[in-house]
Write a structure and sequence with these properties.
The structure is a homodimer. By secondary structure, the first copy, chain A, is α/β, with parallel strands linked by helices. Helices cover 44% and strands 15% of the residues of chain A. A 9-stranded mixed sheet of chain A has the order 1-2-13-12-7-6-3-4-5, with helices on both faces. In chain A, helix 9 packs across helix 20. The relative contact order of chain A is 0.18. The model of chain A has no long low-confidence stretch (mean pLDDT 95). At the A-B interface, helix 1, helix 8 and helix 18 of A face helix 1, helix 8 and helix 18 of B.
Chain lengths: 539, 539
Amino acid sequence: MNKSALQIARAAYQPKLPKVLKGAVKALDGDATQSVADQEEIKKLFPNTYGMPVVTFAEAGDVDLPAMNVGVILSGGQAPGGHNVISGLFDGIKAINKDSKLYGFLGGPSGLVDHKYVELTADIIDEYRNTGGFDIIGSGRTKLEKTEQFDSGIEICKELDIKALVIIGGDDSNTNACVLAEYYLQKQCGIQVIGCPKTIDGDLKNDMIETSFGFDTACKVYSEMIGNIMRDANSAKKYWHFIKLMGRSASHIALECALQTHPNVCIISEEVEAKKMTLAQIVNSIADVVAGRAAEGKNFGVVLIPEGLIEFIPEMKVLIAELNDLLSVTSDVKEALKGLSAASAAVYNSLPSSIAKQLTLDRDPHGNVQVSQIETEKLLIAMVKTRLAAMKAEGKYVGKFSGLGHFFGYEGRCAAPSNFDADYCYSLGVNAAWLIANGKTGYMSLIRNTIAPADQWIAGGVPVTMMMNMEKRSGEMKPVIRKALVDLNGAPFKALSDNRSEWAKETCYVYPGPIQYFGPSEVCDLPTKTLVLEQRNKK
Amino acid sequence: MNKSALQIARAAYQPKLPKVLKGAVKALDGDATQSVADQEEIKKLFPNTYGMPVVTFAEAGDVDLPAMNVGVILSGGQAPGGHNVISGLFDGIKAINKDSKLYGFLGGPSGLVDHKYVELTADIIDEYRNTGGFDIIGSGRTKLEKTEQFDSGIEICKELDIKALVIIGGDDSNTNACVLAEYYLQKQCGIQVIGCPKTIDGDLKNDMIETSFGFDTACKVYSEMIGNIMRDANSAKKYWHFIKLMGRSASHIALECALQTHPNVCIISEEVEAKKMTLAQIVNSIADVVAGRAAEGKNFGVVLIPEGLIEFIPEMKVLIAELNDLLSVTSDVKEALKGLSAASAAVYNSLPSSIAKQLTLDRDPHGNVQVSQIETEKLLIAMVKTRLAAMKAEGKYVGKFSGLGHFFGYEGRCAAPSNFDADYCYSLGVNAAWLIANGKTGYMSLIRNTIAPADQWIAGGVPVTMMMNMEKRSGEMKPVIRKALVDLNGAPFKALSDNRSEWAKETCYVYPGPIQYFGPSEVCDLPTKTLVLEQRNKK
């Protein structure tokens, strides 16, 4: 591997650990737990893993534990810090007993099913400490849902004498990890399953999980770029930058980046849905901000847009559903368009032609509109431009509007982890090793009190069933971990809504700059604004 | 101003200076100089500023100099470090005499003409030390070319008792600075003019100027993003990322980013032009790399594309010229297309329809094709996809191709300067103050030996006329600073061409990570690969 100067220097970083995880720990069990909703159904589906207590770790003094082999799996999209979960897990099982072995299943969950794996030795692990990416063993999106898959997993675990699997993934992957844990308990095959909360989207969090790993780093990378673009906007004073940010189902990334950088406009999908806003209302609200600034001679600005916006606009959701239905029976677009309801036809006709084309022509193999392919930033630029022309004709706008679109997503998923993510992930990994050593299964690795310095973090585990409820998926009710959307009554959203009229009018940009690894702690160890606001509020 | 934690910590950074600039200096004059070409014409146009010697500064011991007021102008596109040139200039004139004053002309050269200015006091300067952007006084693209503009400048300089102007800009702005210096000498009005070499594009360099400021930081920001995307590509293993990089007239940025990150393909416009490559040849060469990797199971990769590529492809240049001519007499696209030569019609018909549309419909107010609006990254993705389909039909390609386009430009122009740019720019500013104190005009601020530690840098000045030749601009021969294109016989290009077949086939990605300000010197103080290769080679 060719290494950059920074990578070489950063390899030596020793991630900070909670004090308790610096030695052996024992599990202190709390009270029995319940799922967040649908208790009866969840209990029936998870007879062996339901109701288990939240676990907190305490120092155990000297212990003598047998060697244990562990398998690790990366599941789903990349998030900064995955390699540190694995190096923490490696160091954890080696500290427990130096003869323990770590196996990495290759290319995601399919590696377990297809018996593709590699032993992760110290030499390999040392190449990946504090680095971004999931390339150490690769990731994949195969879902572990079927008993044949589970049984195939048992085979390879028996062959390699694997005592436990650690699955690093998002809400779905952790749900599946729990299904697997339940199945292995029923089968009494002695294989434990532990999950780790991963996703840059930040939507895997709740009363127990304070944040998912990767969110911190990804938001900092995006905020670096947004800040740079803001400084450019404020220097050139002639462009409006519309920046779309990754994150389809929740707007945590857009919100966090807004709190870090103070854009003129930041759209939050959850608010759009709650207020049943139309596309025209969104466009008009942006155009009003543009016109307001233009009136003061400021023909520049920055707008943040969450990637999933389109799907949160009620009328767009209806239009897309109608198009999917119509285009499933005919591939003749003109014919299909005739079938639209009057309301949807009106929405469709309000769209710029390039976007209308994306809605009808770019369909996936099932005939569905590919929502993720829609260039929402360009859609809004085009519609704001049209709106401003109308306002100009009415004498309500004086100025020049020149829009530039950006999309930030892939830039942040594999960035090298910030100190926060490096420490948090490494702790999650060491902690997972101790959950295994303490015989736990169906748990998620849990590190709390994360806005305090790392040595004060609290280590333990939370039963996955505690976070579940029943939701409809492809027409069927399924047990799933409840996704955390942006809470419109929460402190982070309030920090936006309290300030956004000032941010719209004035130029309050903040330039966070690049993630720093070697400087003063107040620069290098900052958690996200979202985490601080949420956790401070809890206290 | 709301400041980020990093901005607050970074404000305290004291940029490194060449040893000689830590005290008073005197100018040592070298031999008389000549322009790089067209000596007779240049001499005639610049009778007062032609032939002046290169100046090197030496320690002067204690000197007692009068106060001097200076005006500063930012010209053209933003580049990281502009604020440090200004803070260096401020500290320089204050060190010379504490009663000196610095005036900033607002919004670029037009501020001088329209008498819009602000006095830059210590309070203001301290807010901008080591920050990105040009927002301290703003920039602009007004060209200083007419005597009325020059005379208007004299008025305000007399009013403010300004002894000298410092113009921070690219090749054109520095040419104009010299025209101004010449005019002010002819008029004997006693106003000196000094230039500073700015441009992220890296094309303002020559035997004297080792690098323009901003290139270092911008390339590092782009390389951070490219590295992150590479790690994502190598983790997800399913996308080909086509990344377009800012820089229209030269490919230095793409080349430097390639040397920092080792992409699978990097196109260099100067090579395309020299080899008279067709669009089809470029597409085929990329498709061959994709097919080669696919044969080994690697359906992912990264391609770097210089923004100006289209204009360097001979057949595209002809097509665009023909379209400009045809569309200047008719706005009927169909009619205009009939007028294309057979060769151009063939090229036009080979283009994806969305790009063909950009060529004919998106025209500027003069009817010209807007080359900068052409989404070259998407053009290449579409054409490579088509080519691969043909290769698949012939059995020459097995694999899946999924292309994603990116454009990095605005993200880098206003980033906070790297240590190199912070030091280099601050030195250029202090140095400019001493050129003024030594009575120089028509000079560019010159800092050399820049791959050595900063205290060994050599300070002085170079006459702008020395860098000039005559070139045709809008049909007229004009004196201009010769632009530095990528030298196909130079060490940086050789470092690419020697390695690119390996980089194409293997996965040799390097992940530079974010710019660091506080870490070990081997991480924080690295100059660009281009600079090191060029300067080492010179020695």
